[in-house]
Design goal:
The chain is mostly helical. It is built from two helices and no strands. Helix 1 runs antiparallel to helix 2. The radius of gyration is 33 Å and the shape is rod-shaped. The relative contact order is 0.14.
Length: 140
């Protein structure tokens, strides 16, 4: 019995690699966005700490106002960055899904080819058994 050989095996292997690369890219984008979101949460904690500390005099009040303004500016920049990273993450996810579908198409082709090969092998085996039975019957 010969072994099964999928004629598009190299293409299938490359599609698997592409899917893996796309998945890794998506995960990297996801992690980057999560890290920036964690920075935003830390910024909110910093703001709460500053506001809870309060200010005793006018100079402290002005300094507190300046610090809060810097935090606000930084928060706006982080929110813009989060939006950009979210868009990149969605694009990477869409690419990963597309690569997954491309690989799935070849998997289905491989499965059909394997089923057809099994069917051919079974027919060949049956023909060989039939031939053997005929030869044995003639010999007897």
């Amino acid at each position: 019995m010969s072994s099964f050989a999928f004629r598009l095996q190299k293409v299938f292997e490359y599609r698997e690699l592409e899917e893996g690369w796309a998945k890794d890219n998506f995960l990297a984008k996801h992690i980057a966005r999560m890290e920036v979101e964690n920075e935003l949460f830390q910024l909110e904690d910093d703001r709460k700490f500053l506001l809870s500390a309060g200010a005793d005099n006018l100079e402290a009040r002005v300094e507190l106002e300046v610090r809060i303004q810097k935090l606000d500016d930084h928060e706006r920049a982080i929110r813009i960055l989060i939006h950009q990273l979210t868009v990149e993450e969605e694009k990477a996810r869409d690419e990963w899904v597309m690569k997954k579908q491309d690989k799935s198409v070849l998997e289905k082709l491989r499965d059909k080819a394997y089923s057809a090969w099994i069917l051919r092998q079974n027919k060949l085996e049956q023909a060989a058994l039939d031939e053997w039975a005929v030869q044995k019957q003639k010999a007897a």
